[in-house]
From TrEMBL:
Binding residues annotated for NAD(+), in chain numbering: 10-15, 42, 98, 154, 272, 299, 301
Protein name stated in the entry: Glycerol-3-phosphate dehydrogenase [NAD(+)]
GO-annotated molecular function: glycerol-3-phosphate dehydrogenase (NAD+) activity; NAD binding; protein homodimerization activity
Gene: gpd1
Catalytic residue list: 207 (proton acceptor)
């Protein structure tokens, strides 16, 4: 049987961490995968040198994952079309705002037998329409797309701290789930499978809004009881949102999978959304300024997902059913006083 050729599309903090794991596992499963792992890198200059050249000579992504080597079989490529050429296993792991342009570039240029997996946390909203990114990828490229999400702070996964994640696969396509499990599972990174692409994707997207609320709480100094209440209400709104708008979602995903409550917890304790939202309250600076100052090129997702949810829920006349999501939107985008965080919850 021909071997699977992997390509990683995105090389930020999580993209680099997952490229490292994939680079190790293609060697561990050399009967299944080709050894070289192309990594699409959005080219930029770091200390006067091209990032792709630094990665290919040092095997470190010095900008986005400086402390852990990627492996010498992970090859940085600045041209996304070249990176995906002949690849049969496409891993999409980039901030959601850059997906559309990337799909424009590769549409019609991928292998006909390719399959994909989305590690992107966010939702695609156009007024009253909402889509998960696995569906966006599937529709644009005409290939099957799974989803991976979980309690996966990238730096901790990269350091080999024990973590779990969830792969959601399409109905009747467990074989694809098993292939992705083979690509990503290590003794320190447990991959569970569930037939629920939408649930895995939506939990990953919506927990970022809850993590922003947790960060606002921390900036306000409201303490752990309030933070726990935010996490509980956030999980409830996440579950209600999934069940209301994506009725195929499986209820097990919320509490039994890493993609559900576990990701919400880790993000509310240790994620970038939490950290920057805390600073938003403490400094009064806008989010875009804090993102640039605090994240060294990494991108915040939660504030954008809060806005997307607001647009969608307003168009559906359902804002009143999701008070926490909407409160995050108003504080982040409409200048509402953060001290109103818990009012009306
Ligand atoms: P990141 O936040 O580190 O983002 C930076 C990336 O964006 C870099 O690769 C940069 O080159 C790229 N970029 C910047 N401008 C660009 C442009 N104009 N066009 C294309 N690319 C551009 O990225 P990440 O942490 O790898 O996140 C990717 C996805 O994975 C997100 O949806 C995120 O929510 C999710 N995720 C992240 C983590 C984490 O801990 N970092 C964990 C799980 C999931
Ligand atoms: P942040 O983007 O808030 O760091 O969350 C990372 C994540 O998705 C952990 O699973």
């Amino acid at each position: 049987m021909p071997k699977e050729k992997v390509a990683i599309i995105g090389s930020g903090n999580w993209g680099s961490a997952i490229a490292r794991i994939a680079g190790q596992n293609v060697r561990n499963h050399s009967d299944v995968f080709e050894e070289k792992v192309p990594l699409w890198v959005f080219e930029e200059t770091v200390d006067g040198k091209k990032l792709t050249e630094i990665i290919n000579s040092t095997h470190y992504n010095v900008k986005y994952l400086p402390d852990v080597p990627l492996g010498d079989n992970v090859v940085a490529i600045p041209d996304v079309v070249e990176a995906v050429k002949d690849a049969t296993a496409l891993v999409f792991v980039l901030p959601h705002q850059f997906l559309a342009k990337t799909l424009d570039a590769i549409e019609g240029k991928i292998a006909p037998n390719a399959k994909a997996i989305s590690l992107i946390k966010g939702v695609d909203v156009h007024g009253a329409d909402i889509h998960i990114f696995a569906d966006v990828i599937e529709k644009r490229l005409g290939i099957s797309c799974s989803a991976l999400s979980g309690a996966n702070i990238a730096s901790e996964v990269a350091l080999g701290r024990f973590s779990e994640t969830t792969v959601g696969y399409r109905p009747g396509q467990e074989a694809q789930g098993l292939l992705w499990q083979k690509l990503f599972q290590t003794p320190q990174f447990k991959v569970q499978l569930i037939e629920d692409v939408a649930g895995v994707s939506l939990c990953g997207a919506l927990k970022n809004v809850v993590a922003v609320a947790a960060g606002l709480n921390d900036g306000l100094g409201y303490g752990n009881n309030t933070k726990s209440a935010i996490m509980r209400i956030g999980l409830l709104e996440t579950m209600n949102f999934c069940l209301e708008f994506f009725p195929s979602v499986k209820s097990e995903t919320f509490l039994q999978e890493s993609a559900g409550v576990a990701d919400l917890i880790t993000s509310c304790l240790g994620g970038r959304n939490r950290k920057v939202a805390e600073a938003f309250v403490l400094t009064g600076k806008p989010f875009d300024v804090l993102e640039a100052e605090m994240l060294a090129g990494q991108k915040l997702q939660g504030i954008h997902t809060a806005k997307d949810c607001h647009i969608f829920l307003k168009a559906r006349n359902r804002l009143g059913a999701y008070p926490l999501f909407d409160k995050v939107y108003h504080i982040c985008w409409e200048g509402q006083d953060p001290a109103t965080l818990t009012v009306d919850l």
